[in-house]
Amino acid sequence: MNAERFDPTMVFTPEELAGVRARSNLDGALCVAHAWIVIGCAMGLYAVWPNPLTFVVAVLVIGSRQLGLAILMHDGAHGVLTRTHNDTVSQWLTAYPIFADTLPYRHYHLAHHRLTQQPNDPDIGLSAPFPITRASLRRKFLRDITGQTGFKQRRAQLRAAFSVPGARLKNFWRKMGGMVITNLVLLGVLTALGRPQYYLMFWLLPLLTWYMVVLRLRNIAEHAMVPDNDDVMRNARTTYASFIARAFLAPYWVNYHVDHHLLMYVPCYNLPKLHALLLAKGYGDKMEIQQNYSAVLKLAASKEPEAVAA
Predict the structure, then answer these.
(1) Paired residues of 289 in beta bridges
(2) Any idea what the Cα angle at residue 127 is, between residues 124 and 133, rounded to 5°?
(3) Rounded Cα–Cα distance for residues 167 and 232 (Å)
(4) In the 8-state DSSP scheme, what is residue 304?
(5) Rounded to whole angstroms, how far apart are CA atoms 258 and 233?
(6) Angle, CA 116 vertex, CA 67 and CA 130 arms, to 5°
(7) Concatenated DSSP letters of 184-232
(8) Helix (H) and strand (E) counts in the chain
(9) Alpha-carbon distances of 94 from 68, 76, 160, 199, 269, rounded to whole Å
(10) How many CB atoms lie within 10 A of CB 165?
(11) Which of 58, 186, 237, 276 sits between 20 and 30 A of 116, alpha carbons compared?
């Protein structure tokens, strides 16, 4: 277990804790609505000005908002996306559309919080291999952007869903029924708008490509190459993000990851407030913070290639 602990009641006043922990149906709904409105606008951009540039922009924007849906699902797994109907909103509007499931993710993810960066952390495999060489990192991102990683994951998901002999269809529906329904609804909406091809172009394609790129970047930034696996201030990382980075790499305040681990029941929309409080109370120098994602990638690719034997 982690050697260092953080007691928020010794750091914050009851009013401060209540402020950052406050859940809001309105804020949660606005975040979810924002993600889907941006996705719709990206498709609309291409519909109005169809050309290679708007196609690429739409794929990048939508893939980033698909990560945004995953981040909002993550809040749902913590029970803080909305004050009421949290699981329903999380499942049907954030998780199922990207072929995820809040409930099994919750059990897995809370174990990660209990065991952060310890040998039995279920997420340790995401951070342990780093740093790697630049060439290795390029290969990983190349597999992501060409759809190899996404296809491999979806294939494994389908195999697991059909893995129960004698009850394959029942098990498939239990595991993926909500995903099938939400994706059929999305296809139906696009078909009704006269653009059924957009489901492939602007949903599955981003999900298999750019979403996998930014998902990997998120995983690297959060825990890879942290200074101290046993210090709660330094076994996760907060990475400052510019407007462009927030738009394409780190939506919905996912970059405040040390802060999230210190108080895991703070909604994403309150993380900037929590971070400001931590800095005001003098914790900035104790926290693992990087100034941008370029710095994180530099750390991730800092391993020197092995010398070739003469």
Answers:
(1) 238
(2) 145
(3) 44
(4) P
(5) 6
(6) 70
(7) HHHHHHHHHTT-TTHHIIIIIHHHHTHHHHHHHHHHHHHHTT-S-TT-T
(8) 16, 2
(9) 9, 9, 22, 17, 16
(10) 7
(11) 276
- The answer to whether 75 touches 105, Cβ cutoff 8 Å, is no
User: Do residues 219 and 126 touch, judged by C-beta distance below 8 A?
Assistant: yes
> For the whole model, what pTM was predicted?
0.94
- Burial class from Cβ neighbours inside 10 Å (0-12, 13-18, 19+) for residue 281 reads exposed
- List, in sequence order, every residue forming a beta bridge with 239; answer none if it has no partner: 290
The rounded distance, in Å, linking the Cα atoms of 105 and 116 is 16
Is the pLDDT reported for residue 310 higher than 70? no
CA distance 157 to 30: 30
How high is the pLDDT of residue 156?
95
List, for residues 188-202, the tens digit of each pLDDT value.
999 999 999 999 999
Distance CA 236, CA 256 (A): 9
Q: Do the Cβ atoms of 211 and 66 come closer than 8 Å?
A: yes
Please choose, from the candidates 50, 40, 20, 4, the residue with its C-alpha nearest in 3D space to the C-alpha of residue 272.
Answer: 20
From the CA atom positions of the chain, what is the Rg in Å?
Answer: 20
**Going by C-beta distance under 8 Å and a sequence separation of 6 or more, which residues neighbour residue 15?**
none
Amino acid at 112: H
Q: Which amino acid is at 212?
A: M
Tracing tokens 């900035």 back to the chain, one arrives at 284
Q: What is the pLDDT of residues 160-178, one digit of tens each?
A: 999 888 888 999 999 999 9
- The CA distance from 17 to 12, in Å, is 6
How far is 143 from 141, CA to CA, in rounded Å?
5
- Contacts with 303 (C-beta within 8 Å, 6 or more apart), sequence order: 131, 132, 133, 136
CA–CA dist 64, 59 (Å, integer): 8
Q: Report the SS3 class of residue 238.
A: strand
- Tell me the C-alpha distance between 145 and 11, whole Å: 43
